[in-house]
Design brief:
The longest helix is centred in the last third of the chain and has 48 residues. The protein has 4 helices and 14 strands. It is α+β, with helices and mostly antiparallel strands. The chain is elongated and about 80 Å long. The chain has 2 domains: about 90 residues, Ribosomal Protein L25, Chain P, CATH 2.40.240.10; about 90 residues, RNA Polymerase Alpha Subunit, Chain A, domain 2, CATH 2.170.120.20. A hairpin with a 6-residue loop joins strand 6 and strand 7.
């Protein structure tokens, strides 16, 4: 296991802002009935360890003040705006220290899984499982072989063999880790067909509208004809009165 050099934080190291500006991340080391110690870790090295995976279940050997201690990463804090890593918490442990860790689950033989080959989808219900074990016995990951899994199967925690000395924090139920579900098929909606009654009603409405238009046209024509006839009658009466 690689040893990582850290620096104890003092007033001489500068403030938190100056540490961050100089590429160092401030943190705290606690546990084992000892007083908490303020330390700092090189940001570049810390991010490299984080990128290697299983960060929260990995025991690190830290070297400072001429001695080496084993620690388990417990918490990371980021700036709310810039997302810059600004603080960490490490728990000091010994080989027999009982620790609670989140361990990832790996699914083997996905390329030859019968359910996946039929188009099924692996639905992950839990990516991590919380375990209790000795610090010296933390499993890197839990594994489940999908070689015989088919669509409709549910993988429960009881289907996964835990290493000796490793226990679950959840013991009151056999919880589901993942399921193999059928493929999702999106069906395009068919255009709505109008009912015969609706079509007849629409046609009747259109015919009624046409009839009203015709009646209005006829009415206007009659009115115009009547108006013209009345005008002619008045002209004839006026000519007779004048001749008298």
């Amino acid at each position: 296991m690689e040893n990582y050099k850290i620096v104890t934080r003092t007033k001489d190291n500068g403030s938190t802002k100056s540490l961050l500006k100089n590429g160092m991340v401030p943190g705290i080391l606690y546990g084992q009935g000892t007083e908490s110690i303020k330390i700092s870790f090189e940001e570049k090295t810390l991010k490299k360890i984080m990128g290697a995976g299983s960060f929260y279940s990995k025991i690190l050997d830290l070297k400072f003040d001429g001695k080496t201690v084993k620690v388990l990463p417990k918490d990371l804090q980021y700036h709310p705006v810039t997302d810059q890593l600004i603080h960490f918490d490490f728990l000091r442990v010994q080989d027999n220290t009982k620790v609670t860790v989140d361990v990832p689950v790996e699914f083997l033989n996905q390329d030859i899984c019968p359910g996946l080959k039929q188009g099924g989808v692996l639905n992950l219900v839990r990516r991590f499982v919380e375990l209790v074990c000795d610090a010296s016995n933390i499993p890197e990951k839990l594994k489940f072989d999908l070689i015989n899994s088919d669509i409709g199967d549910a993988i429960k925690i009881s289907n996964i063999e835990l290493p000796k000395g490793v226990k679950l924090t959840i013991t009151d139920r056999d919880f589901v880790i993942a399921t193999l579900v059928p493929p999702t098929i999106e069906v395009e909606p068919e255009p709505e067909e109008k009912a015969e009654g609706e079509e007849g009603a629409e046609e009747g409405a259109e015919e009624g509208a046409e009839g009203e238009d015709k009646d209005e046209t006829k009415g206007e024509a009659k009115g115009e004809a009547k108006g013209e006839s009345g005008t002619e009658d008045k002209k004839e009466e006026y000519s007779k009165d004048k001749s008298k």
